[in-house]
Amino acid sequence: MKRLIASLAVMGCLAAPAYAVNPDEVLADPMLEERAREISADLKCVVCRGENIDESNASIARDLRLLVRERLVEGDSNDEVVGFIVERYGEYVLMKPNSSGANLILWATGPALFLIALLSGGLYLRRRAQAQDGAQVLTQDEQNRLNELLDE
């Protein structure tokens, strides 16, 4: 049993990522193909969640892979290719969206809400502790009467 677990662990560590790039998509020039893979790793499939277009089997991912390679063959730089695709599909296709402009609001909202919740929780706990400190104690007569009522 231990050997089985060990062999599964080794196979899991050695497994290379499976790419969805078809052989007919691969460029003849290895330098262009390497650039295409670098660009594709930074572009997200618009259908799949969390997969770049190199890993996705979706037809739109294939179209994007072909578009990247087509633009590279035409002589565009990496930035121009990414800019062209972002212009066409929006910043949603970027695996790492820019942290400027309107996106800055999205990046800052999470930490800001966390700080507000932390401050609100602290104020609540402080008020609750103060309310418990100022709680009124029953007089002896009131305590005796309460005991009588509870015994009945």
UniProtKB/TrEMBL annotation:
Q: Does the keyword Ribosomal protein apply?
A: no
Q: Which GO terms describe its biological process?
A: cytochrome complex assembly
Stored Pfam families: CcmH
| Endpoints of the signal sequence | 1-20
UniProt keyword annotations, A-Z: Cytochrome c-type biogenesis, Heme, Iron, Membrane, Metal-binding, Signal, Transmembrane, Transmembrane helix
Annotated transmembrane regions: 104-125
Q: Which CDD domains match?
A: CcmH_N
> Which parts of the sequence belong to the CcmH/CycL/Ccl2/NrfF N-terminal domain?
9-150
> Example GO molecular function term?
metal ion binding
Entry GO terms, CC: plasma membrane
Entry annotated with the keyword Transmembrane helix: yes
Listed InterPro entries: C-type_cytochrome_biogenesis (IPR051263), CcmH/CycL/Ccl2/NrfF_N (IPR005616), CcmH/CycL/NrfF/Ccl2_sf (IPR038297)
**Job description of the protein:** Possible subunit of a heme lyase.
User: PANTHER family given for it?
Assistant: CYTOCHROME C-TYPE BIOGENESIS PROTEIN CCMH (PTHR47870)
Q: Which family does it belong to?
A: Belongs to the CcmH/CycL/Ccl2/NrfF family.
Q: What is this protein called?
A: Cytochrome c-type biogenesis protein
* Native source organism of the sequence: Aliiroseovarius pelagivivens
In the record, what lineage is assigned to the organism producing the protein? Answer: Bacteria, Pseudomonadati, Pseudomonadota, Alphaproteobacteria, Rhodobacterales
